[in-house]
């Protein structure tokens, strides 16, 4: 079923395999109206208030309320200057590809969101922190930035106002940890991307010690629509408490892997069956990671869970990035865990011992089990690690994120682990 | 010595940041674009130009996946080894690539044409399995496509 009445602000201008709208086309479709409205008629405080009321929560994984995040930035004449806004376009979470589609498909939407966010916190400089592999996105963003400067949507005295903003594209050199917001600040400063201690929070002391807001690409893309059409309208797009639509995706053995903008709170079953087309012929669903590699598995019993922050949390996982990875019945869960933990072990920044030493250990145990050398006590060691690398034991959320798929796999796929150990081989091979 | 073109590109970036250190990674990427990799000599030249210490620049260089501190082939293949690609058949593709190119991961072919590197999630999971050759993303890969793609890169 295709809901014709469905409102899809984020993707309305996106046609796959086509050039994105240039500035003129974007404006003709209603773009930059939010910016015009804000710069000409709203104070920064009013822009912030509208975003607060919209109930927009960050789409980068943690779901922190966006308006609230902005409200921690010091304002007024005494505030330290310059202030910075950063779009987090690192997107290296395995299974996640939504921000790429947004940047490639409608780069001006991201720019308008960034300008509005910068206006709300009165930032002078904004950066897009883009992963290096997104070459098409880089090319399209560069063109859009040049167009926006030409129209004075960027630069000095924006649209004749007292507000000025410089915006630069920064491309990374590749490391998953760069997506963590404080590590990202170090990466932007040209250092090793090692997370920083909090507090102080970036909103108070971020880039070069100055107030800085870091927001995910999809988060920022929502802002123009909230400002152009109001918080109430935005709230109403949703099927849950959290405002707006969400860009959901699915990969793995489904008939039509891809991404779709749907009301926040759309049930997993609807996304999988109506949009991803169900499982490929000959395959059955065994489990899914709802929002990227660092979320807990859900299974068939959770298919009616609405994909919003609180519902997925109550089901024992996290909405994360909202892009699901599907495990089918012919893929080995232990093998999948091996792949996931190899990724996390390799991408640990190495700053703290439990993560640096614990993750390779976890990977080694899993590999042993998968290759038919598992021992019964291995499951106890794995369980121990889910505790020792869990929340509160490491400097950042990388290691706890790595433990989410593991702890849930030990719960839902325990029989698979035991079979491997009992028969000293992988039953899927 | 840095070429005039390299210097121009680095200095254009320099104007986007309040410190020279922030330009270091981008400067290495610019030089790598021209020379293929970052030799000790390139590293020293960049550090000198930006007024940074060689040690701090090397500290950054060795941290990031896409700064090459060893020579690479004419074409660099990044094959995605993350979970969606793994589910969709990454391992067979890797084996096929290794067999056709007669190299292991991280190695360069005898004729210097290709370097094969594993990469974390390339962010194209809806087209898994995928790989990037130089600047181009290739998706929905299967054994037939691999041969055709390799033939396209002289
Ligand atoms: C290891 C790690 C990697 C992360 N990678 C990303 C990323 O690639 N993109 C992103 O937007 N957020 C990422 N995050 C979350 C960010 O730290 C941060 O919460 C987010 O950018 C905030 O934006 P939001 O409030 O708009 O969601 C990551 C977090 C961790 C712990
Ligand atoms: S938890 Fe891992 S990634 Fe995070 S700071 Fe520690 S070592 Fe680095």
Automatic annotation (TrEMBL), chain B:
Annotated residues for binding of [2Fe-2S] cluster: 80, 85, 121, 125
Record key words, sorted: 2Fe-2S, Iron, Iron-sulfur, Metal-binding
PROSITE patterns: COMPLEX1_24K
Note accompanying the cofactor annotation: Binds 1 [2Fe-2S] cluster.
Pfam families reported for this sequence: 2Fe-2S_thioredx (PF01257)
Gene Ontology MF terms in the entry: 2 iron, 2 sulfur cluster binding; metal ion binding; NADH dehydrogenase activity
Requisite cofactors: [2Fe-2S] cluster
Record's subunit section: Composed of 13 different subunits. Subunits NuoCD, E, F, and G constitute the peripheral sector of the complex.
Record-stated family: Belongs to the complex I 24 kDa subunit family.
Protein name: NADH-quinone oxidoreductase subunit E
